[in-house]
Amino acid sequence: MGERPLEGQVALITGGARGIGRAIAIKLAKAGVSIAITGRFKESDDTVPYQTTTLDDRDKTIAMVEEVGGKCLSFAADVRSFDDMSKVVEQIMARFGRLDIVVANAGVFSGGVPIHQLSDNEWQRMMDVSVTGIWNTARAAIPHMLEAGRGNIVLISSVAGIKGGNAGFGHYATAKHAVTGLGRALATELGPNNIRVNTVCPTSVATPMSENQFYYDLFSGGTGGTKEQAQEIIKSMHSLPVAAIQPEDVANAVGWLVSDEARYVHGIILPVDAGASMY
Asked: What's the angle, vertex CA 136, arms to CA 131 and CA 142, rounded to 5?
């Protein structure tokens, strides 16, 4: 394979401004892919217990993609809105005339209480972003892929979409199981049209979503938990001796799945989880 084996292709990455999404954007840009990222780009959001993606995050990602020789468009869009996602795809088509790769990565994280104590808002936000958002992203792009007779769709789920998860994450585990189910359903329907669909299930990833006090308290079992305490607990869930994987580990899996090296890999659920799903 050449140094830029996907030269000329175009990818849409939701939640692409930092963390896993940023790493995927850079990975694909290095392979020659033109990138479009989406996000809400709000300076604060009190519906989740961590700092959400900002305009500064977006600008850093655009600069990093350009540094590796790529092009990067950004769109302020909410994956919960099919209208938003349809407009994004239409603008990508107007700019590039094609859409080859979709990585449905946007999601949220919360938890810490038994499932019967979750509020309506906590439950609904998880489903709206992490399930409906992925559906909206896929269904906005699919008609263009059907017309082109080709495409690659990768859904980002979680090891919690394979296992039952841990206590206190009922809505998260439910949403991530829905994502793996959606991936299988899309693969069944789209395979005959030469559109490959696969799902990646990471374990804990070192991103702002997991590097915050809420997360440390959650895994250490009390307020005032430290990063080190949380990491020891998470490390015990893995077969390999690591507490968290890096965003680039997920990006590497995505990069392979959308490449010709995986041209007959279709409908799989790929754990990138340091062996967590073994147990």
From this structure: 125
Catalytic residue, from 172, 215, 264, 279: name it.
Answer: 172
Print pLDDT tens along the chain (279 aa): 458 999 999 999 999 999 999 999 999 999 999 999 999 987 666 667 777 889 999 999 999 999 999 999 999 999 999 999 999 999 999 999 999 999 999 999 888 889 999 999 999 999 999 999 999 999 999 999 999 999 999 999 999 999 976 778 899 999 999 999 999 999 999 999 999 999 999 999 999 888 888 888 888 877 888 989 989 999 999 999 999 999 999 999 999 999 999 999 999 999 999 999 987
| Token code pair at residue 100 | 């080859």
* Catalytic site includes residue 215: no
Please give the Cα distance from 238 to 235 (Å, whole number): 5
